[in-house]
Amino acid sequence: MTIQVIIAGFKGRMGSTALNMVKEDKNLALAALLDPFATETEIDGVPVFTSKEELIGFSADVWVDFTTPAFAYEHTKFALENGFAPVVGTTGFTPEEIEELIALSAEKKIGGLIAPNFAIGAILLMQFAAQAAKYFPNLEIIELHHDKKKDAPSGTAIKTAELISQVRARQQQGLADEEELIAGARGADFDGMRIHSVRLPGLVAHQEVIFGAQGEGLTIRHDSYDRSSFMGGVNLGIKEVVKREHLVYGLEQLL
Amino acid sequence: MTIQVIIAGFKGRMGSTALNMVKEDKNLALAALLDPFATETEIDGVPVFTSKEELIGFSADVWVDFTTPAFAYEHTKFALENGFAPVVGTTGFTPEEIEELIALSAEKKIGGLIAPNFAIGAILLMQFAAQAAKYFPNLEIIELHHDKKKDAPSGTAIKTAELISQVRARQQQGLADEEELIAGARGADFDGMRIHSVRLPGLVAHQEVIFGAQGEGLTIRHDSYDRSSFMGGVNLGIKEVVKREHLVYGLEQLL
Amino acid sequence: MTIQVIIAGFKGRMGSTALNMVKEDKNLALAALLDPFATETEIDGVPVFTSKEELIGFSADVWVDFTTPAFAYEHTKFALENGFAPVVGTTGFTPEEIEELIALSAEKKIGGLIAPNFAIGAILLMQFAAQAAKYFPNLEIIELHHDKKKDAPSGTAIKTAELISQVRARQQQGLADEEELIAGARGADFDGMRIHSVRLPGLVAHQEVIFGAQGEGLTIRHDSYDRSSFMGGVNLGIKEVVKREHLVYGLEQLL
Amino acid sequence: MTIQVIIAGFKGRMGSTALNMVKEDKNLALAALLDPFATETEIDGVPVFTSKEELIGFSADVWVDFTTPAFAYEHTKFALENGFAPVVGTTGFTPEEIEELIALSAEKKIGGLIAPNFAIGAILLMQFAAQAAKYFPNLEIIELHHDKKKDAPSGTAIKTAELISQVRARQQQGLADEEELIAGARGADFDGMRIHSVRLPGLVAHQEVIFGAQGEGLTIRHDSYDRSSFMGGVNLGIKEVVKREHLVYGLEQLL
């Protein structure tokens, strides 16, 4: 059975990448496209709309949303109320909004996904790292990004460290009286874990978690080369939400 | 509460490493030592025996066994019958023997572990790889060992590939009409996965599973530097079997 | 002093990337553009030509050529005869042609470069690998490419192995009686060295040379992410040829 | 022709490892052993001495010295004066002493080597890194050691950075206004290069230099697993000093 997909925000970078992804998957079909900036009325036979109200009563299974924070909450609510399972990659929801949308989805018995990060590999890395930390409490994180990135450590590195913190007791790593001959050598200290941020031209977005124990080591590394890497997660989201009866927050809830 | 441990085969390489590990853990205590080749009657106040019968009626919690295939089955049965939870690193059990010992343990309500591999890192690698393969069906395995190793691929690489095969459909990787300019370039084909075996002096035992998907990659690597790496698994086994009510096969059952 | 550059083949993918590179370097200036497919007569004030004859008597320092094998020889000869130092990335020269062009350049006392590969990193990898092999004769090569690549091993891997062969005696690696449980596990055998070819979606072009010796290892890895990586080599070529008095073959001659 | 070798300090850890290395190389032969703590008068037919004076007039080619700083200078001078080419792994020479010994060796026309580091791999890494930095000025250093190491960064990392500083102009790496959300994330700043120090159980001594440029990356990594890794350098030193006519400081002078 083909899943009928609406794409809201199809004129943006993520939305247009999602459009191509849906087209190339035989199990998915484009039902409609929505974007306030659209000037076409149809594309390859698919109807194009500029406001969500035009989709009331429309028949489709999933509502993929890559719009902006200003629209995302209203869109997600609209989708649930009109029988479309939402898959939302827009950020900016408040915790209250998410709670409300989950409640609404449960009432309507419609699946859904709001995900700040659609890279399956990054999420697997975080899950595996948290799992491994139970047995290997000594670990360090190295994240490597292009040299135009402003913040260090990266958001993903901090999130990884947070997840690990929840499963291991705080512990000091390295020698108690270790000494930095040059400040910063031992990296950022997050709850006893060290995080090192590398910035170089040519790099894209990469992260390693290195675990060490007596006589052995375990390393988990994720490499993200371009935006297309997110589409695997969107695809998975579309196929999972149609089987569910309430909305979840975070792609990890579907893995 | 301190766990009282008997070590059978304490004169061997693994047994003596286990002896040191138990000594260094404050939560464990040596209750007795057993080895047919022992000439001492006690070591540091711990009684030494040369045959298992001398331990009938003895009080202890766990029976660690690093003997030989010829002894292991009888030892494990003896341990269960005498109230010691067995942690067995000896290989050579038949499937029937394992089944029988699991049944006996359930009857006696005693935990136990028989494990062909105690390296926690290697087992985590296999588990993570099987989990990741559900989302990333394209993968290759590179295993690297010292150049005195005879077989290629390694047993761990084959076991990893087997576990992955159970969760993904067979699929051809690489281009359909790809061509080896020199035979063997694309490695060993196991159910569509490619395995590459590197042999070099200096190396010990290392394995990488590399996953590739659109725009991203995920790599899981385990490095084993020396035999001491197994002791984390033995330690974990001792602490887990005392909480269980039947024997399991494979350290992964306790992770 | 600004180096004045002509770009032949500026309509092609490599040529247009070169055009942007020249524009962005304050030490370089575009003097003229040449392409039989050009329809413009000037771009941003730079004159555009469709046949090389129009450039007779023109004043410039360097002739960058990314045309096709059919044109490259005539273009390079033309450049030398008209006082432009050629930097040529087109392939397909015969050894005789290269010899003739080197002789012509020496006669004219004009520098020049014909290079089948402009990726500085790949060339450094090959040079370092050949140097290290003198001290570490045990090595294996792993090359990793996207899964649309047809040939295995890659041309760069074979070239690397050839360069290493010139500095080390053939030697069998691994155990004399090693055994492949699955054919191909030990990779392609090139003069005793093993080459392993990994093909996965998401990957671009990567190569590792791993050396092993008693108690230590040395690994050299090159990652190529996109075509822009070649421009560092073109830029270097432009700046070096103006200092030289004859043409060389291979970017390594200028490193 | 077999090279006749004296080993001074053969009772120590390095000296005894050197003794075994010489024994196993058919091109080398043990001529004599020296150690103030020796109680034997011969080992396997090789004469054993306790003071250097006993070796006046003795016939041998090379004097390997793994004694202590207190003896090393006198030993090296003695070796040169008595016709033995010294290969010295002891540290603690003053610059004046080294200069004096070089002058003495030149006068006597005897080769020699004083080396603070005999790991060929580590030296190749430093040489390659300095060479690559000419073309790729953006780089970061990651060094990884066991968690009993006190100082960070490691001496080798600092030495590598120093060598690189000599070939590249100081340059700021990363974004001008980059921000550390947690102090230390961007590592130690050495002349604009960033150095990151990882400390984990299980690790031995490892170092990576990662270069990044537009669209490409180059990584050079050295892994040192145990002390035996130094013996390749001692072996090389022995075979090279007999061909030379003056002493050099640093194994890199012989590569």
Automatic annotation (TrEMBL), chains A, B, C, D:
Complexes and interactors: Homotetramer.
Domain Dihydrodipicolinate reductase C-terminal: 121-255
Gene Ontology terms describing biological process: diaminopimelate biosynthetic process; lysine biosynthetic process via diaminopimelate
Binding positions for (S)-2,3,4,5-tetrahydrodipicolinate per the UniProt entry: 146, 155-156
Active-site residue numbers: 145, 149
Alphabetically ordered keywords of this record: Amino-acid biosynthesis, Cytoplasm, Diaminopimelate biosynthesis, Lysine biosynthesis, NAD, NADP, Oxidoreductase
Enzyme class, broadest EC rank: oxidoreductase
Signal peptide residue numbers: none
Protein name, per record: 4-hydroxy-tetrahydrodipicolinate reductase
EC number of this enzyme: 1.17.1.8
SUPFAM superfamilies, alphabetized: Glyceraldehyde-3-phosphate dehydrogenase-like, C-terminal domain, NAD(P)-binding Rossmann-fold domains
Molecular function per GO: 4-hydroxy-tetrahydrodipicolinate reductase; NAD binding; NADP binding; oxidoreductase activity, acting on CH or CH2 groups, NAD or NADP as acceptor
